[in-house]
Amino acid sequence: MSIGIGIGDKAPDFTLSGTGEASYSLAAYRGQPVVLVFYPGDDSSVCTKQLNTYNDDLDEFSAVGAQVLAISAQSVSSHDKFSGKHGFKFPLLADPDKTVASAYGTLGPLGFPRRSVFVVDAQGVVRYVHRAIAGLTYRPVNELVDAVRAAQA
Known about the structure:
By secondary structure, the protein is an alpha/beta fold. The chain is built from five helices and seven strands. The strands form two sheets. A five-stranded mixed β-sheet has the order 5-4-3-6-7. Strand 4 (67-72), helix 3 (76-86) and strand 5 form a beta-alpha-beta unit.
């Protein structure tokens, strides 16, 4: 199990394929905060609820200038189906070899993904980290928006 990065560390850059037949790089969002959401899997009950909640309240993230990026190990094809089914307005990124998940320390025992969220500030520094132990719940929007605000202060 990788320990990964913590608050105050430079966020590891990455480029991943994602929904909308596009590639997404963390560096492309430099200058604005990014909320990185690592989730275990498309169409699972908690992941679906989590991403729908973030999508429903996307205007709260937008109000603080934050971009939401959701990352899991499923394929782009799986992400496209999942996103299309629920109408997500933020990209889902495919990390099939779990390289990015490993760099951020979101893999639990035996390499299983843990539900985790990071807030990266406009300069690319990690300002908030939450790695779930069991992953049966997720961080509420207001907590993440508050973390973005704190990173901007």
